[in-house]
């Protein structure tokens, strides 16, 4: 049984088919990297997995539970055995623009959801938050406000915030694309560590070196469909599809 | 050339000032209630259910477009006849202000809440926060800073609008002034002093709001 299964998912925005029969299986503790040109649907795929978008067709399963399914009449619903918001925290999402809450300290950013959603006491939540911040190397910034942190620090704080909900799956949506180049490394380092420690993750990125080093599985998407899928070696070194080849060539030319 | 006689007004200042107590009482009650109404209606406006959103929208449009004076008179004279509800002049004025200013504040709150970028509510969503939790902990605190300027100007408007209660003989400032002007036959002087008193009340209010804007807004500007 795979940790994440995406089965024939389709998504439309009006007349535009953004996802076209996408299927994907990710094993537990694996890192799946998704590459592809802009507009190919990779962000939308992540958003469907965590519930920010509803699927029009198909099914998404996490572990042994179907979490998203399209019913008849094309209306989608969040199907879950425990209908509480708790379940949402199981799939963590890290955004390109961090989306930290600017009106509270980093510590509170990280401890808020554990308190509100998981019902932890203030003390326990604080302990948990500090531990998470330690993991991403930001323990000394606990009482700082997000706007005083660099981009790399903010993104690491965002990762700590997602980790505090003890997710079984982490989604990364081009998390280094909005960062200055010299700050990218510190975020990727945290992600590498997470992967090494067995976090199941789906990472949308343009960082090919990261993909080569960390990915157990790489998929190339284009125009809403999975074009090719395989190991990092296969896709990055020996792509079989023309589109994959031309995409990689364009990327490396930059 | 008209000969001003402010002395007579100054002599009667205490009489005028008893009205100030009523004006402040009226304004404070009106502000408190209007904020509650405004918050409630703005949340209805933001509801996912089109029916609820439309009803709220109609409420806002109706109370924004009809004159306060008409609403005031209607509540005081028509409500007893139609629904057997008899409110005192003071309460009628308070209710009218709640409904009207509530409508204006509802739009301010709604715009403030919607101006918070979507990423914030998305991040709250994926963490598992309920809508209510997201509003209370994330959205409203941020929206508050942005809404302060328009809320501040609404407060000044409420103080000024309270003068309409004079129409129903609520003994606030303006009513006291109308009484005074008929007994002194000095409408120009009385009304000038009246305007000055309102200015003295509202101007500092405006300054306090500006000060708060500075303090709260500075965290926003990053």
Offer a concise description of the structure.
Chain A has 254 residues and is of the alpha/beta class. Chain A has helices at 42-50, 106-116, 122-135, 151-163, 181-196, 208-214, 232-237, 242-253; strands at 4-13, 16-26, 31-35, 57-62, 65-70, 76-78, 91-94, 169-173, 201-204, 217-222, 225-230. Chain B contains 9 helices and no strands.
Order of helices and strands of chain A: EEEHEEEEHHHEHEHEEHH
Total count of strands of chain A: 11
List the uncertain runs of chain A. Answer: 78-84
Main sheet overview of chain B: none
- Fraction of residues in β-strands of chain B: under 5%
End-to-end CA span of chain A: 40 Å
Give the spatial strand order of the biggest sheet of chain A. Answer: 7-8-9-3-10-11
Task: Give a description of the structure.
The complex is a heterodimer of chains A (254) and B (222). By secondary structure, chain A is of the alpha/beta class. Chain A is 35% helix and 26% strand. Chain A has a 6-stranded mixed β-sheet, with helices on both faces. Chain A has a 5-stranded antiparallel β-sheet with strand order 2-1-4-5-6, with helices on one face. In chain A, α2 crosses α3 and α4 runs parallel beside α5 (181-196). Chain A is globular. The N and C termini of chain A lie far apart (40 Å). The model of chain A is unreliable at 78-84 (pLDDT under 50). Chain B has a single domain (7-221), classed as MetI-like (MetI-like fold). The radius of gyration of chain B is 21 Å and the shape is flat. The chains are: A alpha/beta (254), B mainly alpha (222).
Search tags:
heterodimer, A: 254 residues, alpha/beta, six-stranded mixed β-sheet, five-stranded antiparallel β-sheet, 8 helices, globular, B: 222 residues, mainly alpha, MetI-like fold, flat
């Amino acid at each position: 049984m795979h940790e994440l299964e995406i089965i024939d998912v389709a998504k439309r925005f009006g007349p535009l088919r953004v996802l076209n029969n996408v299927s994907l299986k990710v094993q537990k503790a694996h890192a799946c990297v998704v590459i592809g040109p802009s507009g190919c649907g990779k962000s939308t795929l992540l958003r469907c997995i965590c519930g920010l978008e509803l699927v029009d067709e198909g099914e998404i399963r996490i572990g042994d539970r179907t979490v998203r399914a399209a019913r008849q009449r094309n209306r989608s619903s969040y199907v879950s055995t425990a209908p509480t918001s708790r379940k949402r925290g199981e799939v963590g999402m890290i955004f390109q623009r961090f989306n930290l809450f600017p009106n509270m300290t980093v510590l509170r950013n990280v401890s808020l959801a554990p308190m509100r959603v998981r019902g932890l006491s203030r003390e326990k939540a604080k302990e948990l938050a500090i531990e998470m911040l330690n993991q991403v190397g930001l323990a000394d910034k606990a009482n700082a406000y997000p706007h005083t942190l660099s981009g790399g620090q903010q993104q690491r704080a965002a990762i700590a915030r997602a980790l505090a909900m003890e997710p079984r799956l982490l989604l990364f949506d081009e998390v280094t694309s909005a960062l200055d180049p010299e700050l990218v490394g510190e975020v990727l380092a945290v992600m590498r560590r997470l992967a090494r420690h067995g976090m199941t993750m789906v990472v949308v990125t343009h960082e090919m070196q990261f993909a080569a080093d960390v990915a157990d599985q790489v998929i190339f998407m284009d125009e809403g469909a999975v074009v090719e899928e395989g190991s990092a070696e296969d896709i990055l070194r020996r792509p079989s599809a023309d589109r994959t080849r031309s995409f990689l060539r364009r990327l490396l030319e930059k | 050339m008209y000969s001003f006689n402010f002395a007579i007004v100054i002599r009667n200042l205490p009489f005028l000032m008893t009205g100030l107590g009523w004006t402040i009482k009226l304004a404070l009650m009106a502000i408190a209630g209007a904020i509650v109404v405004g918050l409630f209606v703005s949340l209805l406006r933001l509801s996912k259910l089109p029916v609820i959103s439309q009803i709220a929208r109609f409420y806002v449009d109706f109370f924004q477009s009809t004159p306060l004076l008409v609403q005031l008179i209607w509540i005081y004279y028509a409500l007893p006849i139609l629904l057997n509800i008899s409110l005192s002049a003071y309460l009628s004025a308070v209710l009218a202000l709640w409904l009207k200013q509530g409508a204006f504040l509802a739009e301010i709150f709604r715009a403030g809440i919607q101006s918070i970028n979507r990423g914030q509510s998305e991040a709250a969503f994926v963490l598992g926060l309920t809508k209510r939790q997201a509003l209370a902990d994330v959205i409203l605190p941020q929206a508050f800073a942005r809404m302060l300027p328009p809320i501040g100007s609404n407060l000044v408007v409420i103080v000024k609008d309270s003068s309409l209660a004079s129409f129903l003989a609520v003994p606030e400032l303006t009513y006291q002034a109308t009484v005074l002007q008929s007994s002194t036959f000095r409408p120009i002087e009385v009304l000038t002093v009246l305007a000055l008193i309102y200015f003295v009340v509202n101007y500092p209010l405006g300054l306090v709001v500006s000060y708060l804007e500075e303090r709260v807004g500075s965290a926003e500007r990053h």
